[in-house]
Amino acid sequence: MVITDDKSQVSGLTEVGRISSYFSAEKIQASNQYLERNCHIRLKKQAAVLEADMVLIKKKTFNKGYGETPSVKIEATAFKYQ
After folding, report:
1. Is 79 helix (H, G, I), strand (E, B) or coil?
2. How far apart are CA 74 and CA 28, in angstroms?
3. Distance CA 69, CA 54 (A)
4. How far apart are CA 13 and CA 63, in angstroms?
5. 45-68 b/e with 16+ CB inside 10 Å = b?
6. pTM above threshold 0.85
7. Which CATH architecture has domain 2-80?
8. How far apart are alpha carbons 5 and 25 in whole angstroms?
9. What does the pLDDT look like over 5-19, one tens digit per residue?
């Protein structure tokens, strides 16, 4: 399973559905990499249910406000080979 934000990698593949994932850290000092990695795990699980081979990230939204737990929401599209 490949997660990418490059549209050229999914050209010629069949779209099987839109997926999204949200992850909120338990600690205040979470890095963007940590948030994104955990969100990718959830995206891969959703894509596996759709039997997808590749996931194209459409939108990433990080929320790291003062006094709030950091979070990320990723919206993506799942694709598979024909």
Report:
1. strand
2. 20
3. 30
4. 32
5. ebbeebebbbbbbeeeeeeeeeee
6. yes
7. 2-Layer Sandwich (3.30)
8. 23
9. 999 999 999 999 999
